[in-house]
Design goal:
This protein is of the alpha+beta class. Helix content is about 40%, strand content about 10%. Strands 1-2 form a two-stranded antiparallel ribbon. A two-stranded antiparallel ribbon has the order 3-4. The longest helix is centred in the N-terminal third of the chain and has 17 residues. The two termini are about 40 Å apart. Bound molecules: zinc ion. Zinc ion binds next to β2. Zinc ion (ZN) binds next to β2.
């Protein structure tokens, strides 16, 4: 409920004005490495990709092409995830390739998505399914 949040923020600002505690303008400079809680930029590279606008548009393009439907069960139209047919971890050059993506619901993604641990594919069967069904 964004309107409630906004109202609470406004209320908070009103109170802070009353008691003379508006956030100091220096606060806006305490970002990233200037913030006391900065831990040296430890966000893993893959997380940075997942939160990037480029990744978001790749996901949306995959969903659109598959008409927002799981390609395995064709039932689920909610809880959708974009699967990398050739695994994200092993084919960095195909991470944003729409033809390497397919829409899956959460359970199907668990069942048929490729699993990579320490740079090795651990569920070969589902990877074969992935490549052959293409
Ligand atoms: Zn499914």
């Amino acid at each position: 409920m964004p309107h409630v949040k906004a109202a609470m923020r406004e209320c908070g600002i009103r109170v802070m004005k009353k008691v003379g505690q508006l956030p100091h303008p220096i606060e806006k400079y305490r970002r990233g490495s200037n913030h006391p809680n900065w831990r040296g930029g430890i966000t893993p590279y893959r997380v940075k990709i997942w939160t990037s606008p480029q990744y978001k548009s790749w996901r949306e393009a995959v969903f659109k092409r598959d008409s927002f439907q799981c390609v395995v069960c064709r039932i689920n139209t909610h809880d959708l995830e974009a699967d990398h047919i050739k695994p994200f971890a092993l084919f960095p050059e195909l991470r944003f390739d729409v033809s390497n993506g397919r829409t899956m619901c959460k359970p199907c993604h668990r069942a048929y998505g490729a699993n990579v641990r320490h740079g090795r594919l651990v569920n070969q069967a589902s990877f074969r399914y992935a490549v052959e069904s293409k």
